[in-house]
Amino acid sequence: MFGKLSRLVSLVALAALSLTLVTPGQARAEFPEKPITLIVPWSSGGSGDLTCRILASHMKEVLGKPVVVKNMPGAGSMIGAQALVDAAPDGYTLGFLGISAAIAQYTSVSPVPMDKYTAVSGVLNPPLALLVNSETEFKTLDQFVKFAKENPGKIKNANAGAGVIDHLYSSKFAKVSGVEFTQVPYKGWGPSLAALAGGHVDSMFVALGPAKTLIESGKIRAIAIAGDERHPSFPELPTMKSSGVDIVMPFWESIVVPAGTPADVIAKLDDAIKKSFEDPAIAKKIKDSGLDISYLNTEEIAKLRATSDSEVKVMVKEAGISN
Q: Measured between alpha carbons, how far is 6 from 195 in angstroms, rounded to an integer?
């Protein structure tokens, strides 16, 4: 009897062990098994859209599955942000959210808190620059500020959407320099730049990368950059600080996933992004596109997000544009 009982216990234990070995593989196969969607909360044509399309092309080679860019502009990046956090936390839906999304927490009527999504990798950009339509009389920052002071509200300044980075930046610029703009919102930098080149607005604050072609064609003019140093690709462009407007604005983005995404999936995605930045062909594409971006790993972007969040909260309050 005891022999039969012993054999029965052994069979039960063996069956349990077999179930243990099989079940995890059945529950979650090796990532990724299918295409990945990368949500860009801006219109096509801007630096964010261009960055994501370049990275997506190489991530496909690393991961073995397509990474499909999906533009979802509107509400200062909150439409795309909400679509991201509504997705399953399985690594198959990514987002491209940065400082504008951090700002929107305090300016949007329907904010998406940053703790609803987790950063995978960071994309660090150079500071923003002040651009004007080439038909305007402004050749220097001094001329621009002088005219704006003498004609409050006459300068029409484009932005990528109410409450996003360039809106906040232009509001802070106005406060520091003592001027007043008429803000004209668009759905992203692509439409904003088109409006500036077409003469529908007079100025805007934007990264130099997506504006490079229009600057070189002579349709728009760069006046000054909001950095501590001049930009290596535009050495003739003075800093705002050197022209009397002491202001510097950080600009960063990040590839993110819904909160709760498994750590091993995040690590695999970060590795794919890191390898994309390291690939010489991708580096050439980035340079040729006029982008000036660099990679931050998961830990580095987490620290930058935390620091930036506290900074923009103060800036939004000072600008008087809080929700």
A: 82
**Contact present, 249 and 165 (Cβ < 8 Å):** yes
Helices (H), 136-201: 141-150, 165-177, 189-197
Distance CA 309, CA 307 (A): 6
Q: Which amino acid is at 108?
A: S
Dihedral angle sign, alpha carbons of residues 163, 131, 237, 296: positive
Picking from 113, 112, 120, the residue whose alpha carbon sits closest to that of residue 93 is 120
Residue 141 located in a structural domain: yes
pLDDT band at 7 (very low <50, low <70, confident <90, very high): low
For residue 89, what are the domain limits? 36-125+251-319
Q: Is the same domain home to 104 and 42? A: yes
What would the pLDDT profile of 178-221 be if each residue is shown by its tens digit? 999 999 998 888 899 999 999 999 999 998 877 888 999 999 99
- Give me the helices (H) in the chain, please: 2-27, 47-63, 78-85, 99-107, 141-150, 165-177, 189-197, 208-216, 263-278, 280-288, 298-319
Rounded-to-integer distance, Cα 177 and Cα 293, Å: 29
Q: Among 186, 217, 243, which residue terminates a domain?
A: 243
Angle at 320 between CA 74 and CA 105, to 5 degrees: 45
